[in-house]
Specification:
There is one protein chain. This protein is mainly α. It is built from eight helices and no strands. The longest helix is centred in the C-terminal third of the chain and has 64 residues.
Length: about 260
Amino acid sequence: MLSARSVFEEILDNDESFQLFCSIAASGESQGGWENGRIAALLPEGRRHLTAKVTRHGADEDKHGRIFNALLKKRGLAPVPVPPETDYTMLLEQKGIGLAHEKLRRQEPLTERDVVVYLAHSRVTEQRAADQMDMLVKYFGDHPEVGKAIRMICHDEDNHLAYCHEELLSLAAAGHGRTILDTLHECARAETRVYRDVSIAVMGHMGRILGWPKAKSAALASGVNALYAYERLGGWRRMVSLKMPERRDALGGPATSAAGFA
C-alpha cells in the first residue's frame, strides 16, 4: 500500500536515499541557523529584547543540522550536495520571502518592519516544519535509528512556532497588525508553491535512487499536487492564524544540546 509511512521507510532503509534526505535536511537547518544568527546581531534598538530568543532559535536550527549530519556519520555516510531544485530555503529567498541574504550580510541594523517580516516568514515555515515533524513522530517516533532525533527536533519546532505566535501578537498589539496579516498571506501563498515544487523534486530524486516504477512516481506526484490544491483552497489558513500559545516564552531559556548525536 502506498502511504507516507511506506515511502519514508523505503527512504530510511536505503543508504543513498537516506544520505540525500539527511543532507537536504541538514543544509536547510544550518542555513536557518545562520539566518537567525545574523538577525540576532542586526536587531534594531527597539527590538533588542528579542536577541536572546532569536539567538536561541538559530542555535536550535544549528543543532538540528548537526543531528542530521550525525545520523549520516553513524551509517558511515558523508553529506552530499543538495540539488538546487530541492533547496526549500534558497527557493523561498528567490521568491522574495523572508529577509534577503544580501541584507543579512550587511552590517546595517534591521528595521521594525524587517522584524515583522522575519517573524511572519518564520510563522509560516515553522508551521510546515512542525507539521512534518508531527507526521514523522507519529510513524517513526520509536524508530531505533532516528526516533530520538525526530522527537527532539519536533519538540524544538513546536517551541519555535509558539514563539512566533507570541511575538507576532505582541507586534500586532503595538500597531503592526495590518503589515503582519499582509506579510503572512504573502508568505503562505509563496510557501505552498515552493513546498509543492520541492516535494515533487525530492520525490523525483528518491524515485531514481530507489528505482520506483513510473506509476508509483506519478501517484506520489499526484498526492503532492492534491495537497497543494487543498492548501490553495483554504488549507493555507492554518499558516496565517495567530493565537496565544500554551507554551509561553518558549524560547526564553538556553538552547538544549545535541548530546548523543554530535
